[in-house]
Each structure stands twice: as structure tokens, then as C-alpha cells.
Amino acid sequence: MRRTIAVFALALGLSQTSCIKKAFIASQASGTREASSALDEIGDQNVARTAAMNGLAQFEGMHKLSPNNEDVLFMLTKGWVSYGFAFAQDDMEQTEEGSDAYEEHKRLATFAFERAIKYGLELMSHEDEGFEASRKNDATLKTWLKENFDDKDQAQGLFWAGYAWLARVNLLRDQPAVVGELWVGVAMIERSYELDPEYNNYVALTALAAYHARASMAELDEAKRMFELALQKTQRKNLLVHVNYATRYACLKGDRNLYESLLQEALKFDETTAPKLRLGNTISKKKAKRALDKKFMASTCGFDMSKPSTVIPDRPSGVDNGDVSPEDFL
Question: N or C: lower Cβ tally within 10 Å for the chain?
Fold first, then answer.
């Protein structure tokens, strides 16, 4: 009898310890998620890199202890995307394509985006486990997304999962099977945009505009209108819009004037006027500087660099597209 009581007491103690541990993790994860936007205000990329890596290690451990915690899953999805884009991919872009260093940074970026996809799909499965079955085609996936994701707060997880999907495709463009499922990530981001167009400074709108400028035979007119809307909605303070508009749309169109004016506007931007976007704008400025390299402009966009630039200094790039709304692009 005493032995039975002892075993029961031990089991009860372990159960209580597990509950306390999960409650502690839930509280810590929720608070960390709420405070995570503070990292966006750090303009030092080295400090931000260290903080991001430490955060990922922390949340990987928390996920091990509490695998069903949705705040942890969200932070892992967003964290791995952010690390892949802001650091691993940025390192890759600074090295010579095809070199050993380039391939290593590409491998790390791909790993980060695949990790983000894993956790993003895991988070989505908490709403419904029908993702795999819904991937039969674009229509079935969109139907599943609309039926199971109808709350504004769900836009966040959908965006990061979708962006990870697109980013992985972009890195693995030489693999037809991967490229053939680009539409999956697009559908996630489109649904995110439908639920909350303003999330993270219209980041979904920018991503969709870049998607529509994916190739010379793609939907370039729609891409242009969406980029103009993004500039308008962000008050030209989110430099990620400028860089994507230039390197995706203007490059494909062979519009050197638009290309240079957008990137020069980004380089001249005073980051103190948008403190909550400091980290992203710091990274965007680095990308803008690289994109203005004459060799890059000639080889990537086909610009004739023997001709002088025709950009008018200190004149805002783009055109006034009138009073447009996010709903025009859904």
C-alpha cells in the first residue's frame, strides 16, 4: 500500500512539474514574442545577428520542452526566416557566385528557410491538418486556407510560412520540382494579405509585388501597381520596397532611370525617421549599394553602363498612381 502511494505521489509530482514547466514556457514565450519587435530597432547588423542566433537557440530548446506552444512555433518560423534573409542570404550575396563560400552561405540560407517551413506548417496544423491533402492544386489550397484561416491574427504565421516557401524556391531555382510548387507559398501570402494588409508594414504586399515581377513574361503591370501602392502605404520609409521594386521590376523592364532613382533614394534615406524599421532598412541599404555596382547592373539587368545616368537628383522615384487600395489587388 505504501509503495502504491509512493508511486502515485511520484507520478503526481512529475505531472505537476511538467505543468509548471509548460506554464513557465508559455509565459516566457508570450512575453518574448511581444517584445521581439525591439530587434527591428537595432541598426547594428552584428548585434542583431548575435541576438537572432541566441533567440533561435532559446526557442529550439523551448520547443523541445513544449512542442505544442504556438508562440514558440511562431517565433521559430519568423526567426528562421529572418536569420536566413538578413544574415545567411546577405552573406551569400556578398561573395562570388559559384565559389565555395557562396555555396556554403547558400546552404545555410536554404537550411534556415526549410526550418522555417517546417515550423510554419506545424503551426498551421494547429488550425487544421489538411495541408497536404489541399496541395492537389491552387484552387483546393486556396479553399482550404479560406476555410481554416479567417482571423486577422493568423495573417502573421501565414506570411512567414509563405515567405519561407518563396525564399527557398528562389535559392533553388535550378530544381524544377521545387520551382513547380512556387504557387503554394504565394497562396499563403495572398491569404495573409487578405486577412491583414498592414501587417509588418505591408510586407505581404511587397512580397506579392516581387512575385509578379519574377520573370519578363510575368505580370509586370500588376507588379508595378503593387510596388507603387507599397511605396504609398509605407510613406516611402520601408526601403525593402525600393530595393525589390528596382531589382525585380525595373531591372526586368530595362528601366535604368527608375532602377537608379529608387536605389539612390534608399541610400539617401535618413534611418532615424523610421526607428522601428532600422534593422530592415540597414540591410536594404547594403543591398541597394550592391545593386548599384556597375558590373552588377550590366550583367544582371543588361544596362549599357557606357552611357551616363539620367537620374534627376533628389527627385522621388516612381509615379503617382492615384488613390488605390489594397483590395484592388486581391
Answer: N
